[in-house]
Amino acid sequence: MAADTLFHRITDYAHRADPYPLYAELREEGVVRQEDGSYLVGTYHEIEALLHDPRISSDRRKRTVPDEATIGEEGLSPAFIGLDDPEHHRLRSLAMRSFGPPHTPDRIAGMHDDITRIVKDLIGDFAGKERIDVVDDYAYPLPVTVICRLLGVPLEDEPRFRGWSDAVVAGLDPSPGEDPTERSRAAAEARKTMGLYLGELADKRRSHPSDDMLSAFADDSSDGRLTQLEIMTTSVLLLIAGHETTVNLITNGMLTLLRHPDQLARLRSEPALMPRAVEELLRYEPPVQMLPQRTPLADIEVAGVTIPKGAPLILMLASGNRDPRRFHDPDRFDPTRDDNQHLGFGSGIHSCFGAPLARLEAQIALNELIQHLDAPRLVEDPPPYRRSPVLRGPRHLLVEQGRADARGGR
């Protein structure tokens, strides 16, 4: 089939359950120009180099042809994920003050017990159920509860921002051949509405602060602190990114373990292996499959192909993670894999801001779930997937369960 329609096939929902043969085709082609003028890169070493190349922009406004994804964004400035240095570094550094080292080095590690309690409460709700949906009953409510507590969002307001988040994620869908205008406008409106909501919460924290990130943003009196508009855009980013990717990581992880019962049994008996298993899951079934928003600031050569300044550049992270020139036997799931420098959280200056939290949540969630379930069985394989080819994961994951304590406990 024609290489210039490869992205059509990758983003076609018919291939959502298993895009990996198409990624292998992409790696054979190297760098592939698509019929719309975009370029796909799917090999590990080239992707990694581009993620560290200062000539590659994350700002869609730098494209020669205006990007439809920027439609309707006039009311809310871009979040730092869509900006370049030095502005990206300024905003990311200010956000990090209340999230991690060096200003708050213990915030994530200090959440271990709280996350464990949330997980155990969710698992407690499985009592008497023969069938659970790993997504709706577990993988979604856990990171939502965690990010709400971290930011200081009342959990009872979660149903409001779930709809907003769904609209924003739908706006990321780069499927060619479809008119993105309406999706982009809906995403921009949802982002704006969520930003106003979070801005109002931050205002309330100024007079009634608590130990959360919105309070830290609002009460920061240092030079160069976030403006009100920057608090809004940064909080929207953290709220969406703080749960969307983690839902997929946990769900893809459980699906992979159910498909590899020998490895599930090993992790159940050797829970100390779980951190390495999560790293392998980030390589094998990454929650973010691609970065569709990169743009060269100058003509660049990649694997013998010249990519012109301003052209859309799409980095296929999930393809790079299966590159046999980087990983031995890459299509095999191996939770003890060594030298696992995957691209699951990206790389370079835009590496995932929340990676430490996502890792912790996934390690606890998967360990507790496999310890609890006895002889779990997939109801449907492949399960139904979400529409997005960027944030790829099952929409539902139905599992028939037994209970660990039915055999006398573990």
Task: Describe the structure concisely.
With 410 residues, the chain is α+β, with helices and mostly antiparallel strands. It is built from 15 helices and 10 strands.
Account of the protein in words:
This protein has a 5-stranded mixed β-sheet with strand order 1-2-8-5-3, sandwiched between helices. It has a 3-stranded antiparallel β-sheet with strand order 4-10-9. The longest helix has 32 residues. Helices cover 45% and strands 9% of the residues. It is built from 15 helices and 10 strands. It is α+β, with helices and mostly antiparallel strands and 410 residues long.
Task: Provide key terms for this protein.
410 residues, alpha+beta, five-stranded mixed β-sheet
Give the helix/strand class: alpha+beta
End-to-end Cα distance, whole Å, is 52 Å
Q: Level of helix content?
A: 40-55%
Rg of Cα set:
21 Å
**Rounded mean pLDDT score:** 90
What's the main sheet like? Answer: 5 strands, mixed
Shape: globular
Q: Which strand order do you get reading across the main beta sheet? A: 1-2-8-5-3
